[in-house]
């Protein structure tokens, strides 16, 4: 069963690295913000994998807090976004 946890952690790590590349290379601000949302979702998935691996449910409030913060941030970005080409 340890192989499953190792594979899950490796896949999350590779996805986080690729997301960081997308944040750094994003052609627009909106692309970077969407990539940041993906990175936050990957952090939540990592916490979920850790909770399942360690059989410890004390990280569930952190997952809920991250999800609420990500949702509010996404809504605020969608509401108040200004185009990059405008000055």
UniProtKB/TrEMBL annotation:
Q: Where are the transmembrane segments?
A: 6-24, 36-53, 59-78
Q: In which compartments does the protein localize?
A: Cell membrane
Would you indicate the residue range of the signal peptide? Answer: none
Main subcellular location: membrane
- Superkingdom classification of source: Bacteria
Annotated GO CC locations: plasma membrane
Q: Which GO terms describe its molecular function?
A: sodium:proton antiporter activity
The UniProt entry lists membrane topology as: Multi-pass membrane protein
Q: Which UniProt keywords apply?
A: Cell membrane, Membrane, Transmembrane, Transmembrane helix, Transport
- Family per record: Belongs to the CPA3 antiporters (TC 2.A.63) subunit F family.
Which named protein is this?
Answer: Na(+)/H(+) antiporter subunit F
Specify the species: Gordonia namibiensis NBRC 108229
């Amino acid at each position: 069963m340890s192989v499953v946890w190792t594979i899950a952690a490796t896949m999350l790590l590779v996805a986080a690295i690729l997301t960081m590349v997308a944040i750094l290379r994003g052609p627009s601000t909106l692309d970077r913000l969407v990539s940041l949302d993906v990175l936050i979702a990957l952090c939540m998935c990592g916490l979920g994998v850790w909770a399942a691996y360690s059989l410890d449910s004390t990280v569930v409030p952190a997952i809920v807090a991250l999800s609420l913060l990500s949702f509010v941030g996404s809504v605020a970005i969608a509401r108040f976004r200004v185009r990059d080409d405008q000055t």
